[in-house]
């Protein structure tokens, strides 16, 4: 998957777990929690969706690397390099 495809996957997950959020002006460099009303359960939903859809194992100690869109894509890019988009 390309960086843009990974970003789109994250957007789709965010749309499902936070349907009332306007993601059109999401700043990729700012943390999700600063821009959206996400709680810790929402964050775990993101991790679980990635696991379910792409079998990506994300250890708890790596969760801080998923703080913003840029850091999430940076983290996932090598893990999803050989994965075809769903």
From TrEMBL:
GO cellular component assignments: cytosol; membrane
SUPFAM superfamilies linked: ACP-like (SSF47336)
Domain of life assignment: Bacteria
UniProt keyword annotations, A-Z: Phosphopantetheine, Phosphoprotein
Protein name as it appears in the record: Acyl carrier protein
Database matches in Pfam families: PP-binding
Species this protein is from: Stratiformator vulcanicus
UniProt-listed PANTHER family: ACYL CARRIER PROTEIN (PTHR20863), CARRIER DOMAIN-CONTAINING PROTEIN (PTHR20863:SF76)
Lineage, highest ranks first: Bacteria, Pseudomonadati, Planctomycetota, Planctomycetia, Planctomycetales
Carrier domain sequence ranges: 1-80
InterPro entries: ACP, ACP-like_sf, PP-bd_ACP
PROSITE patterns on file: CARRIER
């Amino acid at each position: 998957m390309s960086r843009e495809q990974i970003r789109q996957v994250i957007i789709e997950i965010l749309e499902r777990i936070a349907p009332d959020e306007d993601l059109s002006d999401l700043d990729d460099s700012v943390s999700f929690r600063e821009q959206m009303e996400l709680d810790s359960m929402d964050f775990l939903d993101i991790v679980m969706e990635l696991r379910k859809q792409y079998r990506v194992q994300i250890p708890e100690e790596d969760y801080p690397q998923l703080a913003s869109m840029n850091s999430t894509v940076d983290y996932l890019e090598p893990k999803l390099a050989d994965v075809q988009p769903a």
